[in-house]
Amino acid sequence: MTGWIGAALPRKEDRRMLLGRGRFVGDLTRPGLLHAAFVRSPHAHALVNKIDGTAASQAPGVERLFTAESLGCPYLLAMLERDEFVPTAMPILAGEKVRFVGEPVAVVIADDAYRAEDAAELVEVDWDPQPAVASMETATAAGAPRLHDHGNCLVDLLMFDDDRLPEIFAGAAVTVSATFSSARVAALPLEGRACLAEWDDRDDQLVMHVSTQVPHQVRSGVAQALGLPERSIRVIAPDVGGGFGLKCVVGREEVAVAAAALRLRRPVRWTEDRQENLTAAFHGHEQRYRVKAAFSQDGRILGLDAEIDCDTGAYSVFPFTCAVEPLMAATELPGVYKVPAYRARGRAIATNKAPAAPYRGVSRPQIVLVMERLMEKAAAALEIGPLQVRRANLIGKHEFPYTGVNKITYDEGSYRESLDLAEQIVTEKAWAADRDRLRSAGLRAGIGYACFSERTAYGTPTMSQRRMRMTPGYDTALVRMDPTGEVIVTTGTCGHGQGHETTFAQIVADRLGVHPGQVRLRQGDTDLASYGWGTWGSRSVVIGGGAAGRAADVVAGQLRKIAASQLEASPADIELAEGVARVRGDDHASIPIPELARLVHFQAHRLAEDLRYGLEARATFDPPGTFSNACHVAMVVVDPGTCAIRLRRYLVVEDCGVVINPMVVDGQVRGGVTQGAAAALLERVRFDPEGQPVSATLMDYLAPTAAEMCAVDIVHLQTPSQFSETGAKGMGEGGTIGAPAAVLGAINDALSDTDVRFDHIPVLPQDLSAALNQAGAVP
Amino acid sequence: MKPAPFAYHRAHSVAEAVALLAELGEEAKILAGGLSLVPMMNFRLARPTALVDVSRIDGLSYLRADAADAAGLRIGALTTHRTVETSRDPAVLNGFGVLPRSARWIGHYPIRSRGTFGGSIAHADPASEWCLLAVLLAARIMLTGPDGQRTVPAADFFEGYYSTAAAPDEMITEIWFPEPAERAALTEFAPRQGDFAVVAAAVSVDVADGVCRSGRVVLGGVGPLPVEVNADPLSGQPATAATWQAMGEHAAGQIDPPDDAHGDAGFRRRLTATLVSRALAEASQPGDEVQA
Predict the structure, then answer these.
(1) Which domains does chain B have, with CATH numbers?
(2) Do B261 and A700 touch (CB under 8 A)?
(3) Which positions 464-503 of A are in contact with B (Cβ < 8 Å)?
(4) What is the C-alpha separation between A120 and A110, in angstroms, rounded?
(5) Taking CB atoms and an 8 Å limit, are B270 and A643 in contact across chains?
(6) ipTM surpassing 0.90, yes or no?
């Protein structure tokens, strides 16, 4: 190995992105391209009596209008093989009933995107509005209007139920009971959803360019919805401008555009606008936890009981289903703490809102917030330090592999070490003195901690426990060397801003002894790659990169054998480095790798039979999953006059095992912390009681900008994972997971002179103002 | 989020713009920087049948002192926020320094580079910095129409949310600030840097020998137009923090602000008390005068 792993290599992707030469769906042009505009419901809940498209069909430039009926009522069906699961088929276009504002009932195909939108306005729909369910409280009330025939509870899972809990609570020194909640958020990728579908007569295939995280699942979804063999669809994800989970599920619009292109045999494009993205795409993150925890006098947690409700919106998303949030939450709530007795019930509640998709972190932002708040509440009740309570419960270094009450086995991490180091840095940098100085100047200031781990890179051994009909997890890579010694890697993972072209090249380059510049990653194309599961769940570098590493090892073995035959040495003595194969310890016995590649391809007859035709290999990786961990510390300042809450300092001590590229890791951490801090301070998708969205623009849905952030200091610990080819652990979500709890802790610390404490996010200035007024606190 | 169909006309002079407006009727709109109008058109909340683009008209971008015998400042309608913000003209800084100082509250750099002073006044957002300052400094809005020019005092110009005294065939050509205000300040609260203010406070004070002789307070975000509140408690009081705080509380007690997603009435009252007090403290500091 020549040590490209760990190098802060500038991203290969950056040049084209910075020059504006990326290729996104919106950059594609086709002769005769048609444009789609959707007719969407203005009602949260209504029956559709009649759709009259006469005027729209006759509008200038209109090629065709499709409704559910004219498309043959296709739908997407996500399935969980569990009795407690209620399937909800999501129609591609709603035919009889709409279940949220923005749900599509028709699509206009026209020669121009403006004319398509003009014509969509002319479609007349006879609606029969029904009472709407805009919250979980309304949805679960007796006599509530039903979204689906079976009722509004789509999943109700009692995951753990320890019968010792009543006794434990009866004998505990302290019992903490609280309700925690988090608002609905939008993933808000810079590029909204987009797709272009076109029929290819030569390949007898529908070719779709889609802004997606999961090209193969889009192919499966379109194939299932339209009754086609998967071969007859090719999905290509070109450059994709972010996803954050919004694009790891299949959108009905993508299927509708595919159907239109199939019917019309013309290329059709749809580009989601920001209003559609905020109202009619997918949301997530709206959860409520009613929790009870028992603690001993010295701060050890003795028992934990949680009722978890997730607002899943109108439908299950394909392929993950509405169970993704409650299952994750109920399974992983104990987190980094040793919880001896546990009960957890998780429910998915349907409401008249856009469906919930997995959002960066999936329930971990909430469960970390819940556990950290429990530690702080116990500390307050027991009058001991909150870090002391955490230390009393953290899984220690010598306890790994640790199997928890939730039957999860945690691989080795640095749970205590990351907290110790974070506290040491906070002390060295005099955070407390800074806080006290601000306080004496009349401001409110506070410091909050969050300790957590996150399971990343879930393979099928873990995913199968969810019992999804489509169980994801593995991925396959193909590594080939061409006659000039350049390397092409294809994977089923699908980077959309994570820098995979760089990090995968680093992994493969080390194994083949070439420069990362000679390794080209081809991803996001279902015709190029073996069936794979795309990029989400912090899986790609571990699983896709692991598969690429394994395949590269096979190719490296082929190179060694060929080099050994030319250098009259044993393959075991051949090392590949700096572009040459050489006999270890003999500087004069070497052969350039491109020369080996040339031999294999152009002079195969000169090689022994078992060495011919090689230099390519396919490998699959399917790990159980590996736990990254971190400790976040946040400091906020509250302006008592305006109740403005500003981040002042932020520290991340994180451990994602072997760091492949520190610049990429730091970028992921900073972006994640920003998103997580915004969930605590700014972001909230709101609806009125009738289910009308009231945060449908970027003036109302507040995304963070650089001006709202402070510098984020990042320190790496490296505990390699035994479950990973490279020792790396997934790390795409950790920033988002830890930040809400750390920021909320800091806000509560800033309010420590009052009785006001918050157990929900976001905490907005107006909430703080009202709470301080109510508590009679001096501003 | 694409606008409904409309016709586009480019005017090359004020006379041509006014003639086009008269010809195209009430459903035509003036397009200047487009920062407010174009998003509303994209949401199809505004559906003008025609746009008259005035952005290429020469001679409407300026900050100009009155003639020697007067102390006022004239701002051309097409002057961008950024031009005001970066002005180092002593005629602006001496007496009207509150204008460049306040420009930094307007949106972000690209917005300030395109948005125009006249456009903000015409749009009449009740939280707009220029609308508040126009009222505070008793500016006069110069309108040009088919029958020539007329001026309207800012206090009479704003009639409600996004509604003004300008007729459909009139165009704002200049905003005249007749009197300097050495001691004036604007401050505001927005959830993020560059957002529309939840509450904005613009104030001016007349302080001599440590005593406040008089002052004015105009608030944004607390009603359908800039709201001037009674500022009598300032008169004759020492120029101290206690006086500014008392005025802040007095201002908060006079308003009946709206509830919306960014703040309920109670929050807006808290903000008003704080921001008025802070703006007064800032205004009472000696100005940054510049010698020519």
Answers:
(1) 7-53 (3.30.43.10), 63-177 (3.30.465.10), 184-283 (3.30.390.50)
(2) yes
(3) none
(4) 10
(5) yes
(6) yes
